[in-house]
Amino acid sequence: MSQDVRQLEPKALWNKFADLNAVPRPSKKEERVIEFMKNFGASLGLETFEDEIRNVFIRKPATPGMENRKPIVMQAHLDMVHQKNNDTDFDFNTQGIQMYVDGDWVRAKGTTLGADNGLGVAAIMAILESKDIPHPAIEALFTIDEETGMTGALNLKGGILQGEILLNLDTEEDDEIDIGCAGGVDVTATRSYNEEDVPEGSLGYTITVKGLQGGHSGMDIHKGLGNANKIMNRLLFDGFENFGLQIAAINGGSLRNAIPRESVAQVIIAAMYEEAFAFEMQELINEIKAEYKTTEPQLQVTIEKSALPAKIMDLGVQEGLLRALYTAHNGVYRMSADMADLVETSNNIARVIVKEGQITIQCLTRSSVETSKFDLANALRSAFELIGCEVTFSGSYPGWTPNVNSEILKVLVAIYEKQNGQKPRVVACHAGLECGILGTNYPKMDMISFGPTIHGAHSPDERASISSSQKFWTYLLEILATIPEKSS
């Protein structure tokens, strides 16, 4: 299947993407892809090294006639989100991505594709390997762990990069040029609870929420998609309020930056409520499905009898948990007052785990305004602290403030308009690009972000447009040829 991908145009781009996707590269486990990239640079005879955090750098001199142009940094991240469908047998730690062509799209079999940000990495690799593409002096920067903490960008020291312009190749709509992005902070609530014996005369049930689209918790947060953790909490709350439902375990969501698609809960009720419970819950399921019929047509909720669990959680703690999760904000919190249609602040209730006396709730709060980011984070903190949780903020990273007077922005807009007969959309995005972080140690660097069209990032429905990748490649080549001259 990947062989079909290798035949796509431009072959230089797709072959490098196929090479990259053969290497396992989940976040925080990038050892193999780091060595792969270092070997690639060395095989070209180019200066190649890594820094203390293991970001990889490859330097290539300017092509003849381009020595007087401003040196540039081409940047993308090496890691990818590892998400798969429940019925897909796949090990991200040992297997390469299994790709196939579907019309105008490249997809993966039951997993994320890794086009985010693998197509950006592949484009840089293709430029580094090229012998006939004009370009100024290039520093290729391949950062690590972008998806689960921006660790590579946060730990990149000043003084290493010499470029004056940074091209970040990590956006997902080919008619957009990004000049700003949101920052983020992880909000994690934990507490222990006492486990109790299951009362006599109880029945065990497994409640499953699945079939949701999921998606990127920044770029897709405004779409009104279902959050499996919030839907599950609604079911549990109703069961508790009306039938005294008690929880043994919850396992909801997966990654902090992915809208949760699935949740499973083990619960009990008193046997005398069996018939009424089944009727009431089905009514509620029908209502929820009706609410989400447009945005989540594949939503499935099942309630099946199962073996009684060994223990259940303390009833007082359970009530607090259900009420806190109902209260906790999920989705768009505030729209930008300065840029039309831009989400300013949002939260994703990404992970809910209740198991063996321990509660863990993980959220990712994003905002392009630092004060608003922590306003929402403190609102979440307050809700969880009221039920006795310890709440920590971690992994905070800044947003990227737009520079509408950017010199490289003017270059990109002019080239786009010449090639496509219309102006691009100049936007800020609600995702966490690394530009804002990199700019803290390189404040004078002129930064811009663009890329090919990728849909469904952070979910097994991730797909990359073939025609858009061709458009992106043509665009990138002219950008490299049109980099401004060095200041005199």
From TrEMBL:
CDD domains xrefs: M20_pepD (cd03890)
Signal peptide: none
EC number: 3.4.13.18
Pfam families (alphabetical): M20_dimer, Peptidase_M20
Gene Ontology MF term list: metal ion binding; metallodipeptidase activity
Cofactor(s) listed in the protein's UniProt record: Co(2+); Zn(2+)
Catalytic reactions on record: Hydrolysis of dipeptides, preferentially hydrophobic dipeptides including prolyl amino acids
GO cellular component, one term: cytosol
Keywords recorded for this protein, A-Z: Cobalt, Hydrolase, Metal-binding, Metalloprotease, Protease, Zinc
Family matches, as InterPro entries: Peptidase_M20, Peptidase_M20_dimer, Peptidase_M20C
Protein name: Cytosol non-specific dipeptidase
Organism encoding this protein: Flavobacterium fontis
Upper taxonomic lineage: Bacteria, Pseudomonadati, Bacteroidota, Flavobacteriia, Flavobacteriales
